[in-house]
Amino acid sequence: MAFTLKINGTPHEVDVDGDAPLLWVLRDVLGMTGTKFGCGQALCGACTVHVDGQAVRSCQTTIDSVGDGAVTTIEAIGQVPQGAALQKAWLELEVVQCGYCQSGQIMSAAALLKDTPKPTDDDIDAAMSGNVCRCGTYQRIRAAIKHAAGV
Ligand code: FES
Ligand code: FES
To answer: Which of these CATH numbers, 3.30.70.1290, 1.10.150.120, 2.60.40.770, 3.40.640.10, describes 77-149?
Structure first.
């Protein structure tokens, strides 16, 4: 079935089943591989993207449910102020180890800062608790979010 997805401000025509996961369409149909596959069960956060500004797990988000929502992925998050600030902070604080989880981490952090520009530790914990990092970069992630937010 044909769908027109709005991704990073550009319409993309795809011919997929309506119950196809957004993650699969991004990666395998459109070749946008910045969004990662981790668990496939909404348990790790590696696949996090935004739909209409809200962080969602794209592995459990069907194309039907996206509808005409505006999808933002890690490829374009640097074009919004929160994303740009986070990417800069990530580099300055050398957050990344293997990197596999990090696009999802930044997408969750960007959604947090959009709604809560000056987050507390509790705000950060609540927003980031679903993003798993096997390398254990949690302390640097927290520090980078604070650095980006200026708190
Ligand atoms: S791959 Fe989607 S939450 Fe893990
Ligand atoms: S940096 Fe390796 S899983 Fe997070």
So the answer is: 1.10.150.120
